[in-house]
Structures are given as structure tokens and as C-alpha cells.
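Supplementary Data S3. Sequence and C-alpha cells for construct A.
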Amino acid sequence: MPKFQLLPIFVALNTNTMLIIGIAGGSGSGKTTVVKELVRQLPENSVSVISQDAYYFDNGDKTPEEKKQINFDHPDAIEWPLLIDHLDRLKKGETIPMPIYTYVTCARSQEVIYVHPTEVILVEGIMVLVNEELRKRMDIKVFVDTDGDERLMRIIRRDIAERGRTWEDVLRHYQTFVKPMHQQFIEPTKRTADIILPRGSSPVVVDILASRIRMHLGK
């Protein structure tokens, strides 16, 4: 059953200078759509986005066969200490150098994206509610809940178009990594969420969330 505990959360946060919102959900659930819509609706330059995907360990030195065995859906694939350190630095008012990670090469770029401290920080990724230390730093925890079949269709389209995988590669990866890791690590984090967005990115609920964030910014 979705739970929308919006008003109590924002009443408690009125005195904060920075609002940190975690947005999680399974692969292909529509998290990126939610983030883009929030950024679109909120005042310009009031929001910064940290992507969990940027913090995958650099595996550029592995062979092509070794890269196929990387489990991107396991918490151990993420450099959590660096992500948490960057979030802490943003809270202190510092600009951070967020890595750029490429799935095609499984490596981090030599370039970075400079993320500036703003009134709202969106931390987005499939596992951002898995890590307890990261959750402690969030004011609001959101889980984007989407039917498994719908997520699989989105994953197939995305991985073929953006990650250089064949149809067979996508299905093998889904059966080997995505589905079991979702059941073991990601789905259980729904219980830690303050807000569950049903049917992927329900426009009505996203509008309500954006409205409440604007109220916080106004106060």
C-alpha cells in the first residue's frame, strides 16, 4: 500500500538549509524520469543531482569477459565511502567532483562533473536506500515502484540502445544479476521509504512532492 507522508516530513524539515532526498527503485523503474520532472518543476539552480551510477568502482582494466561478470546490482559494486564523503562535503557548502562512469567500458572517465551545493540535493540510484549510512543523511526517502515486466521491457530497450548489449546479453544479465539482486537487496528497501511512488512515476504524486519541496524552499 503506497504511503504518502508528505506534510509531516516537511513540517519537521523547515529549519534545515539543505534538503537531501533519496530516490531509489529497481532498474528501469522510472527514477530518472522522476528526477528530471522534479528538476523541471523546481526553481532554477535550486537542485543538484548525485547519481549512484557515477560511483561504481573503476573496472576499466578488466578483460571483456571479466567485465561481463560484473554484478552492477550488488552493493559491493559501489564505492560508498566516496559517495557519502561527497554528500557530506556538499552539506558543508563545498563543490564536489562527481565521477563519470561509462557502462560500455566499465571505467571512470578522467573528467568529472562538478556538483555545487544547492538547497535541494537529489541522490538517485537503484541502491541508494540499501546503505544505512547514506540513508541516515537523507531527509526524505522515495521508492519508485514499477511492475517487474514493465521494468524488464525498459531494461531491454535501454541496454541495447545505450550499453552496447545484444538481446541475448540483456536477458542473460537480467536473469543472472538484475532479478535476483532486486529481490535480495532493492525490493526490501521499500520498507525504509517515506514515500512510495506507484506505477513508476505517477505524475500526480510527483507534482505533490514537487509542490511540497517548493513550500520548503519558500520557508
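Construct B, processed identically:
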Amino acid sequence: MYQYTFIGLDVHAANVVGCALVPDTGELVRMQMDSDPAVVLDWIRRFEAPVKAVYESGPTGYVLARFLREAGVDCVVAASSKLLRAPGDKVKTDKRDARLLAEMLALGQVTEVRVPTREQEDLRDLSRLRATAAKNLAHARQHVNAILLRHGIRYPNETKWTQEHQGWLHRQRFDSPVLQFTYEADVEQAELLAAQLKRIDQRVATVARDCEYKAVIDALMCLRGVQVTTGFGLAVEIGDWTRFTGSSIGSYVGLVPSEQSSGESRHQGPITKAGSKYARKLLVEAAWQHRRSYSRPGIRLLRQMDLVAPATRIRALEGNHRLYRKWCAFDARKKRSVTANTAIARELAGWCWSLAAPLQQGEQKQGHRMNAA
């Protein structure tokens, strides 16, 4: 018999469907209740301890998991993409989902998602706000470029969205009043979004100086292509770097090739694109910077390296040289640049781990010593 009462929870915004696997009899007890965490806790406490609960990761977040844990209930959040389902199972209901979660938890087949603290989740929301603002700005600028392109107007210089380019944009005139209004509205929208992104970047820089990830951010910024917004984004998206190794971190952010192998045949396809899309995007963007010529650190990197320990500084220098040499090797082989950059991004993830994980391991050891004292 099981030692635990395993409870699967199918969580929605308005209600929760629970299914408990009773250890003594193997009986399934089902219940539909309000989504209020206190109501869910009251139902769970009807079962004899020890109790272990699980629900899928999704838009409802981690509020329920944190509430149950604070109340002494062992609650885990399952990675929804890792849940096993039979290929022929075409019936999906809330009750079946809750039962499936309870049974998989009992069998130890649940891949757990790290549950962040409230403060860590707030930092992640700020980072994703920055990503959304940057995406909206890129779309707004594309609208402006598209209007000009459709009407045969071309900016004479290559560099755009400078003060000179914005002055040129305001001087453009169209014969149609409707088109002129649309164009001016698009330009205004792009300028407003640019100002918003600037405010968010300033806030990110301020928060990064005082948050719990400050040491990790400072270390990551010793690598080329990693500015404060990139370092902040990677730090809050990954969270606990000690969960991984230098080779597994690439798999976590979805930068390893997919594979279809059977028997003696082995075929590798595109990258898996698993894990955090935003973290993967930051790594890919930063990887392009390592293609530029490099012999020694610039002024920004030298100033940044003064903020970290000698071991971190040495490791970052090794990483910058290594990634540039890899780019040179890919270019010498005439490797497709997009494919090469993906490989560089995967290795960059490993170098980021080698800088961040030792710092967090040191903090954990220091915390254990303080607790023991």
C-alpha cells in the first residue's frame, strides 16, 4: 500500500476538481470545489497525513502551491509538457485529468516545476514586461517602415531610429489626409513605446542592483553580449542554476537538437525549443555579439569585471575567448550563420551556468552554516 494519500488537482480560474487516491483501500475520492485556496486546503485536510498534492503548471500560477506549502501540505507543480498520455486516449475531462495527476504522482512519474517565491515571481514579471514592451516597439516601428515602403519613400542612411531619423520621419508628408493621420499616429505610437521601454530599462537597472540575484547578474554581465537587461532576464528566468549542469542547461532552455532514432539509424532535427522562450531568445541574441572580433575586454567589460571575484573574472575571460574562437571555426567551415549562432547560444548557456552556479552554491552553503549555528 501507498504511504501517502496522493491528490491530483485540476485547477481552473473559477473552480478546482480534486481526486484523492486513498492508500488503505485504493479508493478514488473526487470533489469539485471553489478555486479559493482555503477551500482546497480544507478539503485536503479531510484525509489522514501524510498527504501529497499536485497540479499542472498553467495560467493560474503558483498561488495555490505556495498557500498549501505554507499550511504544511506537500504540494508540487507538474510540468504540463512532460505529462504522459496514452496516444489513443481522446477523452479529456477535469475529473480524468485530476485522476491522471494523482496516479502519476503515486507512480513517481511527475516532472516537478520549481515553485518561485512571491518576490522571485515579481522579478520575473518585470523581466517579461520588458520583453513584451520590446516586442511591441519592434512591431510599431515595422508599421512605420511598412507605410513608407508601400509609398516608395526610403530613408537615405542605413542607421534608423536615431534622432536624425526621427526628425526625417516627422518631415514626411502625404497628399491624402487619411494617410497622413495614420502615418503620424504610427510614428507617435512608436515614440511612446520607445519612451516606455526606456522607463522599464531604467527600472530593471535599479532593481537589478538590489535584488537577490545581484551577484549572478554581475557575473553574467562579464560575458560579451550580456547587458543588464539580458543578465537580469536570464537570472530571474532560470532562478536556481544549481539545478543543472553545464550540459543540461542547454536542454532546459531548448537549445539542443531534437532527435528521431530507431535501431541503427539516428536523425537529429531542429532544436527542441523547450523551456523558457524568453531565456532562449536572450541567449540567441547575446550569441551574435561573440562573432565580432575580440582580443581583449573593452571598457565596459573591464569595469564590470572589477565588480566580481577573481575566479569569476578568469572564467568569464575564458568564456569570451572560447566563444569567439568557436565562431571563427564555424565561419572557416562556412557554416550557416543561423545554425552556428544556435550552437554558440547553447555553449553560452553553459558558460552562464559556470558563472552563476558556483555563486549560488556558495550562498546555499553559507545559509546552511548560519542555520546550523
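The chain has a mean pLDDT of 93. The two ends are 40 Å apart (CA to CA).
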